[in-house]
Amino acid sequence: MTNHTSILNGINNFVSVKFFYLLWLSLLVSFSTFAQKNQAWEEIQRLLSAQEKAWNEGNIEVFMQGYWKSDSLKFIGKNGVTQGWKSTYERYLKTYPDRATMGTLKFDIVHHEQMDKKVYFVIGKWHLKRSEDKGDIGGFFSLIFRKIKGKWLIVVDHTS
């Protein structure tokens, strides 16, 4: 009986060690995934803050650094789809020709979700505080970010 009990204790110890190892491994993987998602969101928040700052300084060119500098960039607005970084930049310059028209930009995030390791989806509100003669304006946006060459960049912007 002593040998039988000793064998059972050995098996139980092995199973217990294996169970705790698997539990520890799954917790480690979960934490790692959470940390990656948290880091992605922090990087995107920094990008959006930098865009607000650039806009509020009247610097559309720096504002555009948050966008993918590619002919495949898509901007969807009330006048339809604008294709490409250069066309989007030119659209901003035409729509907001001076500081008074640009006003002061404020983003408020409504929802954000990492779709996979290299794709992030953000929904938010935008508001331009402008002089009384120009009037405040605002609306909603949805952005698709992709991690390209180690940087999160906007690849699709739908703003209304």
Automatic annotation (TrEMBL):
Superkingdom of the organism of origin: Bacteria
Domain DUF4440, chain residue ranges per copy: 44-154
Alphabetical list of InterPro entries matching this protein:
DUF4440 (IPR027843), NTF2-like_dom_sf (IPR032710)
Query: Per its record, how is this protein called by name?
Result: DUF4440 domain-containing protein
Q: Name one Pfam family in it.
A: DUF4440
